[in-house]
Amino acid sequence: MIRAMEGRTVIVTGAGSGIGKVSAMALAKKGASVVLVARNEDRVKPVHDAIAKDGGKSEILPIDLSSKQAIREGVAKFRETHDKLDVLLNNAGLWLGKREATPDGLERTWMVNALAPFMLTRLLIEPLRAAKGRVINVASEEHTHGFINWADLQHEHHFDPALAYRQSKLALVMQTFTLAERESGGVTANCLHPGIVGTNLFRNFPGFIRFWINLLMLSPEKGAQPQVRMASEPSWDAITGKYYVRFKEGRAHGIAQSAAHRERLWGVLEQQAEA
After folding, report:
1. CA nearest 176: which of 119, 135, 147?
2. What is the per-residue pLDDT for 197?
3. What residues pair up with 9 in beta bridges, in sequence order?
4. Which residue would you say has higher pLDDT here, 196 or 40?
5. What pLDDT sits at residue 223?
6. pLDDT above 70 as % of the chain
7. Which residues pair with 177 in a beta bridge?
8. Tens of pLDDT along 100-125?
C-alpha cells in the first residue's frame, strides 16, 4: 500500500491531546515520521506508543512553548538529526481563565498562541526551505472578533480571557499571511479554523460550559480532518497565504488584510523573539 506521507517529516505541537493527538496519529498512519511536541515527555508518550503499536514512526520532542529558551533548545535538538522538515503544524493553543506571565515576562496566551509559532517557524525555516515544506497554523474564527491592542499588547492593565485569545489568534493569522508573502515560491503558509472542537482548550471554563461544549461541539477526530488534509494532500503544494474555515476558504479579519498592520506586527514579534 502506498502511503501519501512516506519519507516525510512532520512536527505537530500540542500533540499530547485533542486535535493535535488525532492529527499526529493520522499523519503517522499516512507514513509520515511525526515529531511530537508537548511540554514534557510524559504528556505525549501515550501518543508515541500508540503510533508505534500501529506500525508508525514518531519521536518525542519536549518543548515548553511558554519559554523562549525552551523553544530555542528544542529546535536545536531537532536540527541535530534533521536537515529537512516537510510540515510544521502549529496546533497548540491556550485560553486562560486569568492573566499569567511566562518566565520571559510575556502574557502566556500571547506567548503560546502567537509568539511560539513565530519563533518555531523562524528557527525551522532552513529545514522547511530544504523540503519546500508547509507551515500550517491552527487559528480560530474567534480572531474575526478581535483586535490588536498596540497600547497594551500584553494586557498588563486589563486582562480579559476572550480578548487575549482573540488577539493572539488574529496575530497568528496575520503572521501566516506575511510569511506566505516572504516565502513565495518555496515554503507555503496557511491557517485554518478547524471548527469548535471539544478539547482541553476549554479546560479553564466553568464545568457546565465544558459539559455543553463536549456534548455539542465537534469531536477531535472531526476537528483534525482539515489540517490533516492540508498537511498531506498534493493539491496543497501550491496553495499559500489562505485562511480556511474547515474545508472552505474564509474571510480573515480586515486588519489581517492590511500590509501595514502585518508588517508592524512582524516587527513586534521579531523584537520579542530576539529579546
Report:
1. 135
2. 57
3. 33
4. 40
5. 84
6. 91
7. none
8. 999 999 999 999 999 999 999 999 99
How distant is the alpha carbon of residue 15 from its chain centre?
10
Question: Considering the entire predicted model, what is its pTM?
Answer: 0.92
Q: Which CATH superfamily is domain 9-274 in?
A: NAD(P)-binding Rossmann-like Domain (3.40.50.720)
Chain position carrying cell 511560539: 116
What are 115's three cell numbers? 509568539
C-alpha cell at 73: 533548545
Instruction: Write down the domain spans for the chain.
Output: 9-274
Task: Give me 3's grid cell.
Answer: 502511503
56: three-class secondary structure by DSSP: coil
What average pLDDT does this structure show over 213-238?
83
Which residues are annotated as catalytic?
Answer: 165
What contacts 67, CB < 8 A, 6 or more positions away? 102, 103, 104
6-37: per-residue pLDDT in tens?
999 999 999 999 999 999 999 999 999 999 99
The C-alpha cell 503572521 sits at: 175
Q: How far apart are CA 98 and CA 11, in angstroms?
A: 29
How confident is residue 215, by pLDDT bands cut at 50, 70 and 90?
low
Instruction: Indicate the burial class of 149 (C-beta count within 10 angstroms; 0-12, 13-18, 19 or more).
Output: middle
CB half-sphere exposure, 125, CA atoms < 13 A: 13
Distance CA 252, CA 247 (A): 15
The rounded percent of the chain whose pLDDT value lies above 90 is: 84
Do 274 and 72 contact (CB within 8 A), yes or no? no
With left for phi above 0 and alpha for psi between -120 and 50, is residue 7 left, alpha or beta?
left
Q: Which long-range contacts (CB under 8 A, 24 or more apart) does 265-271 make?
A: 265/148, 265/171, 265/174, 265/175, 265/178, 266/174, 266/175, 266/178, 268/153, 269/114, 269/115, 269/118, 269/171, 269/175
